[in-house]
Structures are given as structure tokens and as C-alpha cells.
Specification:
Shape: globular
Oligomer: single chain
Order of helices and strands: HHHHHEEEHEHEHHHEHEHEEH
Bound molecules: adenosine-5'-triphosphate
Number of strands: 9
Distance between the termini: 75 Å
Number of helices: 13
Structural class: alpha/beta
Helix content: 40-55%
Strand order of the largest sheet: 5-6-7-3-8-9
Largest sheet: 6 strands, mixed
Length: 335
Amino acid sequence: MPMKTPYADLPLERLFHEHPHVRDFLAALGLAELPAGPTLASCLAALDEERLEDVGLERQELLARFAAYMEGVERLLRPQRATIGSVTVIGGRDKSGAAENFTLELRPGEVTCIVGPTGSGKSRFLADIEWLAQGDSPTGRRVLINGAVPDPGRRYAVDQKLVAQLSQNMNFVMDLSAEEFISLHAESRMVAEPAAVTRTILDLANSLAGEQFTPATPVTALSGGQSRALMIADVACLSSSPIVLIDEIENAGIDRKRALALLADRDKIILMATHDPILALMGERRLVFKNGGVARIIATSAAERANLARFEEMDARLTAVRHALRNGEEIAGEF
Ligand SMILES: Nc1ncnc2c1ncn2[C@@H]1O[C@H](COP(=O)(O)OP(=O)(O)OP(=O)(O)O)[C@@H](O)[C@H]1O
């Protein structure tokens, strides 16, 4: 049964005006030039056999391909953030098989920190969330979305990923400028004004990075802190994934506090492995890992938050020393 799409029957000018990406779709098939016609359906109907042979598709297949493409685009554009009100993690067992006995509900805008010694299971926990584990990982944990088992399509979807990962190492292999790189992403996400969004992301990234870069800076020339800042701004503004997993925002010349606030502001559910005292205390809670299991859940108390101000002061002083070191100054006297 061939798939039908109303888009093929729109007046051609309107189709191209409202959906400029259709031109890219056609160009990719070698159909940038089409026989004249009032609608795409009529243009495709007028294609001669020879051109169809060049494309390698039957006429009906071509329409079905177009319908599937437009459906994919619609899915991409459909807002999905509103559909996530909570993520629930139901405890499984630690490495010795002892039950974890916890049920944890995470909501948009909340930051949950993950702490514990090396090998205690922090990355495993993040992986359980990334894959929406259903008792089928070594921990036996289960993850619910909006209080229910997510449908399997959601679990394996690549275009509507629930989870975005910000990992430590950003290795760019493409030879693009920062502006080209981000605008390519903005265009692929089909945002209404890719140029404006790109500018916002570059500005945000620069406000997070200790040292500035220009839109023309090649991504391969960005420092560790700059590329990290760029990825954080990109995830905050362009990713539709409602859950963000962060494996430590290290102190690589980046305003960690602002970065975290920026992500939380966008109503994302944030899980972050960190032992940075300021970031850890900015979170709503900390999950303490031992022997592969969650040993304790500590809600950040008012008393802990009171310490935060003092740690921020200490951090500002250390930042000043770091700055002075970077500038080749001597570190003597009052700091
Ligand atoms: N509950 C569990 N049951 C069985 N295996 C587990 C469990 N939790 C973690 N593991 C396994 O233990 C190993 C160490 O865990 P993981 O890498 O998550 O630790 P980590 O805290 O992230 O360590 P690091 O800080 O060094 O990165 C991994 O192979 C992981 O799959």
C-alpha cells in the first residue's frame, strides 16, 4: 500500500516556501530540476522513465519515500519536552546482590549529583538511565517515564532521544568553524531561525568559557574548556532531550555554575557525576554510591547550602590565583 502525504498536493511554491528542506530532499535524489507542475505530485508524475531509472526508484516508491521523509520531519519538530513530567528510578541491587530499596522521582529543572569512590557504580547508574533500563542491566534497576514503562520505540529512538550525554572528551574531527558547526546542527534540528539560534549559542558558549573564541575559530582549534562550553550551550538551546547526563564539568576554564544553571533553566532533568563541592551543593540531592549501589540519598539541606556561599568565596580566590598563574604573575602576598 503506497504511503500518501498531503504535502505532495500543496501548491509547489507554498511547499517550497513553508518547507525549504524539501529542496534538499529532492537534490539528494538528483531531482533538483523537476518537470513543471502545480504540485510535487504532478511534477513527479511527469518524470520520464529514464530519470526515474537514474534515481533508482519506482514512481510510487518515490512518493512513499517523500511521505516517510515528511513524517520524520514532523516527528522531529513536534515538541516533546512537555510530555516528560518525571523520570522514576526504581532501585535494583548492588554488586553483592543486596537490594537497593529506593524509588527516586526526578523532575524537570532538578539537578541530581552522583558521588562515590572510583568503581562504585556511578557510570553504571548513568548508563541505566541512558538506556532506560528495565531490569535488564547488571543492576536490575528500572526507569519509568511519567510513572510508566516507556514504550520500546522510545527506548531505541534515535531522532527523539530522551537522553543527551555531555561526556568529558569532545574530539572534533570535522574541519568546520564554530559557526558552521553550530549552524549545521541548528539546520538539522529544523529550528525556525537557525542564524539567530547559532548566534545565541556562540554568545552563551563565550560567556561560559574563560577565554573567548570567534565564530570563525575552527572547532579543532578550540581549547578543552571552549569546546565543552560550546557543547553545553548547544545542548541547552538545541537538544530536545529532556534528560541530560553530565560526567563531571571539570575546571577547564569554564564557568561551571552558570553552565549548570543554564541547563537547569531549560527545564531539563540533570544528572551529574561530580565531586566539585560547589556543583554538588547546587544540586537538589546527591546519590551516594558504594559497591555498585545507591547507599544513601542526601537532600541538600539549608545548612549545606549555607556552606555554599563560603565555598564560592574560596573558589573565587582560587580562580584569581589560577588567573594570575596563567598570566605569569608571582603568587606572593595577599590573594
Ligand atoms: N549494581 C551492580 N551490579 C553489578 N555490576 C555493577 C553494578 N554497578 C556497577 N557495576 C559494574 O562495576 C564496574 C564499575 O562501575 P562504574 O564504572 O559504574 O564505576 P564508577 O563509579 O563510574 O567508577 P569511576 O569513578 O572510576 O569512573 C563496572 O564494570 C560496572 O558495570
